[in-house]
UniProtKB/TrEMBL annotation:
It comes from Alkalibaculum bacchi. This is Energy-coupling factor transport system ATP-binding protein. It is a peripheral membrane protein. Residues 5-242 form the ABC transporter domain. PANTHER family: ENERGY-COUPLING FACTOR TRANSPORTER ATP-BINDING PROTEIN ECFA1, HEAVY METAL TRANSPORTER. NCBIfam families: ECF_ATPase_1, PRK13648.1. Its main location: membrane. Belongs to the ABC transporter superfamily. It comes from the Bacteria.
């Protein structure tokens, strides 16, 4: 399958008060069309910097980033890139610009010069996908955090991107808001075939990803399927990360001599294993 995003030998340095801070150090990564990629890592490991490089908000200090063969370094490509790789950020309040939901979702395509008729179709289509069509005429500030974040996602969808990059979109939400947003992301990937890059610090949100990248000090420290990543409990702990609670429990039980796989990811798997070992 084609690469949506190709990152080659990318280093990024912030320069602040004449001091240099290397946020990313020689990172290479390819993201395939239709993939659900999760990125985890401790605070300051370079996740947000990487996401901002992916849609041309930041330019690499060295190395190259291409979105469908368009290099982010070429100023002529920048609008095409921003449209192809949509970004969703942590705080939904900073992303909503209009006073009515449907106007907010229309904002992106309006700026792209899409015709009013098509904008109306796209707004309904995008709101339907995120399950917010009934809220079309509402005021965003009256919605819950999870609902606002789904409106922000609809606003990106209405630009018909090839890929959506979400930088800790659930960090400010309560558990039910988190669930709404995660279900929306999964639906986009599975049913709408959207390429997803999901940055999070909640381990249970990455169980369904096709691939997980673990960042540490500006480098990719681990890479693999969720099960491969979570089976390395001690390595994750050394990177100051947790495993899902159920995996932690299985790991502790197996250390105590109970016959159980330590790479369990769901409650159902745990129940099955405990039944079998009896
Ligand atoms: N605007 C900035 N100016 C200077 N340094 C920054 C800036 N933003 C991030 N950094 C530094 O870059 C490194 C990576 O940060 P970031 O990409 O935000 O990590 P993460 O998203 O994983 O928490 C950290 O050391 C952070 O302090
Ligand atoms: Mg961050």
């Amino acid at each position: 399958m084609k690469d949506v995003i190709s990152i080659k030998d990318v280093t990024y340095r912030y320069i602040q008060d004449e001091e240099e801070n290397t946020a990313l150090n020689e990172v290479s990564l390819n993201i395939k069309e239709g993939e659900f990629l999760a990125i985890i890592g401790h605070n300051g490991s370079g996740k947000s910097t990487l996401s901002k490089l992916m849609n041309g908000i930041l330019m690499p200090t060295s190395g190259d980033i291409k979105i469908f063969d368009l290099n982010t370094k070429d100023p002529e490509n920048i609008w095409k890139i921003r449209q192809s790789a949509g970004m969703v950020f942590q705080n939904p309040d900073n992303q909503l610009v209009a006073t009515i939901v449907e106007e907010d979702v229309a904002f992106g395509p309006e700026n792209l010069g899409v015709s009013p008729k098509e904008i109306r179709q796209r707004v309904d289509w995008a709101l339907d996908i995120v399950g917010m069509l009934d809220y079309k005429k509402q005021k965003p500030h009256q919605l819950s955090g999870g609902q606002k974040q789904r409106i922000a996602i609809a606003g990106i969808l209405a630009m018909k991107p090839r890929c959506i990059i979400l930088d800790e979109p659930t960090a400010m939400l309560d558990p039910s808001g988190r669930r709404e947003v995660i279900n929306t992301i999964k639906h986009l990937n599975k049913d709408e075939k959207m390429t997803i890059v999901h940055i999070t610090h909640y381990m249970d949100e990455i169980v369904d990803a096709d691939r997980v990248i673990v960042m540490e000090k500006g480098k990719i420290a681990m890479e693999g399927k969720p099960r491969e990543i979570f089976s390395q409990v001690e390595k994750l702990t050394s990177l100051r990360l947790d495993v899902p609670q159920i995996t932690e429990l299985a790991f502790e039980l197996s250390k105590e001599g109970i016959d159980i796989d330590s790479n369990i990811l769901t409650v159902d798997e745990m129940v099955n294993q405990l039944w079998q070992s009896n």
